[in-house]
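#dry-run=false #mode=assembly
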Amino acid sequence: MANYLQVIILHTIKKFQGERSIYAIYHMLQGKKSSQTIQDAHLFRLTNVFGTIPHFTRKQLVDTIQNLVEHDWITAKQNSDVFIITQSGEEELAQCEPIPTRLNGWKYQNVAPVFWGRLNLLIQTLSHIVHNETKFYPIQRNTKIQQSIKQFLQQNRQNRELMAQHLYEELTDLLERQSDRHQTIFVRKLTGINRVGQTFDQISKTMQLDEWYVRYVFLESLHWMLAEIEKTFTQYRLLSSLIRDLQQSRLTQSTQTTLQFIQAGRTLTEIADIRRLKVNTIEDHLVEIVLVDKQFPIDKYVTSAVEEKIRQVMKKLQTKQLKAIRQSLADEAISFFQIRLVLAKAGDEL
Amino acid sequence: MNSLEEMLEHYFGFTEFRPGQKEVISSLLAGKHLLAMLPTGTGKSLCYQLPTYALKKPTLIVSPLLSLMQDQAEQLKVRGEKRVLTFNSFLTLQQKKAALSQLSSFRFIFISPEMLALDYVIRAIQQIEIGLFVIDEAHCISQWGYDFRPDYLNLGEARQKLGEPLTLALTATATEEVRKDIIEKLEIKDMKQIVSTVDRHNIALFVEKLSRYEEKLERLVQLVQQFSGSGIIYFSSKKAAESVSEYLHNQGIDRVAYYHGGMEPDQRMLIQQQFITGQLRMICATSAFGMGVNKPDIRFVIHFHLPATMESYVQEIGRAGRDGEQSAAVLLYSDGDEGLPLHLMEQQLPTDAQVEGVHAVLLKSGEGMMDILKPMQEQLCQQFSLNEVQFRMIAQFLATKQDVAKPIELFKQYCYTRKSRNAQKLDQLLQWVRGSACRRVGIVQYFEENQAVNNPVCCDCCGMSIEQVMERWPHIVERQQADSFYWKRELASILCIKGTKE
Ligand SMILES: [Zn+2]
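#status=ok
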C-alpha cells in the first residue's frame, strides 16, 4: 500500500498527463509563486494540493519518484524527467484514501499556518486564564503570532470565560460538520492547561494511520474551516475576528502594482518602463491576474478572433502544452503570451 | 533592597543561593571580569540575571543556539520579566530595525554571535550602555573545546568595540586548557576564574558492558522498567533514537517518544513540552535534546551509545537530578561502540582535498571571499561533498584571513591537529569506560580538579548497584495515561466548559 505522500504525488502525475516534468510537481507542492506554477495549478486542476508541502525537498521528491517507479506505478516518458501513471498506478490510486475534497491549497496555503498558529495559541492562553493560571510556556514560538494574540486579547476585552465559551461553541459547530477522523486529529493537536498537543507522528501511531495522511486530513480541516468562516462570518464572530487581517488579495505584491497601472490605462510596455521590469514579467503578472479573475478583459491583448482560434486548437489537440498549440496554429503573429492568456481564461473548461 | 539575599527572594522567590552563585555575583558586582565554570543544573542563568537588576543597565547575552536562546527568554518571561529581547536571524529586517531603535528599553538582550558580527548591530549597541556582557556556553570559543563554533571567534573583537564592558563567560564543562584558551581569545588580561567541581554528588554513576546490540536493548528495557520518574536516553544517531523509541513502545512501555534535530521545529517543541509537563516520561534523543530544557526532576540519563568526549558526557548526565534528589546515569557499552563517534567526528572536519578544492575555486574568482562563498554554498557543497558543518568551518577560516594564499596550510594543519585531538579525547573516555577505578574520581581527574571524592552512593566500581540506588530514590507518583479520547469532552476540558453532554 502506498503511503500518502506517494498518493499525492501519484495524483499529481496523473493530473499532469505527461505534460510536465517532475520539477513542476516539486514547485506545485511547494507552492512556488511563479506564473508558470500558478497557471499549471489551474490548468491541471491541482489548486487543491498547491503549496500543501511548503518544506518539500528535492530529495523527498526524488526518493518518492524512485519508489513509485519501483512499484511500477509510474513510468518515464522518452524524456526521463517526465512521468506518466501506469495501469497498476491507477489501480493503486483507486484503492487508497481519496484526495481530500475540501482541500484548497491555492486559496489557503499562506493563511492556514497563521490561522492554526493563532488558534492554537489563543486556545492555550484562554485555557490557562480560565483555569486561573497566568504563567505558561507558549506553544507557539513565532513572535509575530505571539504578538497578534496579545493584541487580539487587548482589543477584545470580553470576559474570558465568555470568550472561551464562544470559542468552544464556534469550534464544536465547525467540527461537528466534519468526520470522526477530522475531529479527533484536530483536537489531539490542541494544547491546553493539562495537556500538550500531539505530534503528527504520535497521532498517526495512536490512530494507526499513515503520518502523511494525518497531515493532509488536518490541513483539510483547516482549509475547510477557513472557507466556512469566510462564507458565514456572522456565525463565527470570534474566529473571523481572529483572522480578519489575513483575508487580503491573493495576488502577489508586484502583480497588485501592475494591476493598478493597467487600471490606470497604461500599456504593458509603459508599465515595464516605469517599473524598470522586463515586459515578460509584466506579462506574467497579467496572466496571474486573469487566473484569479476569469472575467478580467483580455481583448486589449488578444482579439476575439485570435482567442477563438486558440481555443479551437486546444480542443482539437486536447493539450495544454504551449509549444504544441503554437506549432499547430502555424501563425507567427500569435505569441506565447497570447496563448497563455487564453489558457488562463479558459481554465478548467478544456 | 540591599543584600543579595533580599534581591534573590524579591526577584526569584528563593531564600538560598546554590553553591557558587553568590561568589560569582559578588565578584561581578565588585567589577571583576569573570570566567565561571558551574556544572549543568546549578542555576547558571541566575548568575547574570540577579546582577542585571543590581546594575540597572541592560545585559547582553551571547548564546550559541537559537533554541537555547528562546528557551531562556521564555523562562524569563514566565517569571514575569517583560523586558526581554531575542535578537537573531529569524527576525525580519523590519523587526530588527524596530528592536535596535529601542534597545535601551530592554533589560535582557539575547543575541546570536553572527548578529554580533554585523556592523549596524554593533553601532546600535554602542549607543546604549551595556551593564554586563555575558557569553553563555563560553567553551564554544575554544578550538580545543568539544563544541567549537567558529562564530564565537568574533566575540573578543565585538567586546572591544563595545568598550570592554564587564564580562561574564559561563560554561558547564571546560578543562583547564580550554579555560585558558577562552581567556586568551577574549583578550581579557585580568579575568578572574571561579571553578566549581564538575562532580554532581546526587547522580550515581554506572557503566555496564554488554556483548551485543540485542543485549543492550534487553538491558535498556529492564532499566527503564526499574527506574521510576523521568529520563533521557541518548543515542548518537537519529535513526537509532527513533527505532529504539518504537521498540520500547512495542515492549509495552508507554509515554516514550523520540527527539532529534531532523524533526520540524513545531513538532520538536511539542515533544519537549510534553516531557517537561510530565505527559511523556522518557525521551529517546540525540545530543540535540537537553540544552535549555529546564526540568528539575529528571531521575535518570542512559547512554545507549558512547558520547564523543568526557565533556559531552558530563554535560548530558548533568541534566539529571537538578532538584537535588537521588538520580542515576547509566552508560551501556559494548566493544566497537567507539566506531560511531569516531566516524561522526571525522565528518565534522573537511579533508585536505575538500579544503584545496574550495580554495582553488576562490582563487580563481578573485572576488571578496565571503560575498562569493555564501551564494555558492549549495554548489560548493555538492561539488566537494561537504556537509554544512564542514562548509561553515572552511568559510569561517578562509574569510577571516586577508591573504588568500597563506592560510590553507594553516587550516589543513588545524584540521589535522583537531582530528588527532578528537581521537585522543575519545580515547580518554574509552579508558574511563573500560577501567575499573572509581568513575567519579575519573571524571574529577579528567577536569584536573584536586578534590577528594567521598560519596556513599558512588558508582559501579565502588560496589554500588542499581538496586541500592533505588533504595534512596524519591517516591514518585506515576501519571495515569488517559484511556479514552473523545474530542468534545477533551475540548470542553481544555476550555473549562461545564455541563456539556456527549
Ligand atoms: Zn566511585
